[in-house]
């Protein structure tokens, strides 16, 4: 059981709250337990859209598996109090993830969580964020950016994208795909070039046979999956599987599986796993293959 704590600031945008909340609620319905909590510095929080929200003024106990999300608000900066900012810092320092939607990045900046990290926000306030926090590395015109468990997004509908990204990193692309389909989100959207997910990039087609193949690969990407198994699962010949998959995605099934393995390995390495552990967890026989793949795709500064 994980908590998703929404820190509500006065004049918060409803969609910035409701979009991510719906993603985690749907994940809960699918068997991944999440408990929402809404906290603020006052018991009632005004929204831009006129519907007031009720919140707790006492924070629940948190573990590193829990998430804090700061939705965006309209108007002049409304700084959170020192105690609230301390909560954000302490959660991150303990190993937890802190995310923001739109102007919520300002609260992360005031907590010192943007210094030296890549981040983003809504395009109308990107320059202001860079001015306020000169030590931050503001990525312009990105939907979302993750850097060392600090996740920022552009706002509005991109709050759904960043929540789906968090579900992907925690539970894998198949689960995120189930959530997206339940929400009638036709296509995942890319975050930034540095954070592109294979499922995001190669799920925009409409070939249902290829979607079924991708579902199978995503649920069993750590296993050896011969072409004959994919053909049997879809009722196609091996040649047809390769032809359809390559036409829809630009990749062979094996290349797609390798991309999933590499993405998961990068996540494990970012959480402190050794190369040996990461390679074993994603299905590589040893670390040499992982190192060769990372040498081709990961900038030297990030290896």
Task: List the keywords.
Rossmann fold, Homeodomain-like_sf, alpha/beta, Class_I_gatase-like, two-stranded antiparallel sheet, six-stranded mixed sheet, INH-QAR, about 10% strand, GlxA family transcriptional regulator, elongated, Arc Repressor Mutant, subunit A, about 300 residues, 13 helices, 2 domains
- The second-level CATH architecture of the largest domain is 3-Layer(aba) Sandwich
Give the helix level as a range of percent.
40-55%
List unreliable stretches of 5+ residues. 192-196
The CATH superfamily of the largest domain is known as Class I glutamine amidotransferase (GATase) domain
Strand order of the largest sheet: 2-1-5-6-10-9
Distance N terminus to C terminus?
32 Å
Give the helix/strand class. alpha/beta
Please tell me the overall pLDDT. 89
Provide the succession of SSEs.
EHEEEEHEHEHEEEHHHHHHHHH
Strand content: 5-15%
Major beta-sheet overview: 6 strands, mixed
- Domains counted in the coordinates: how many? 2
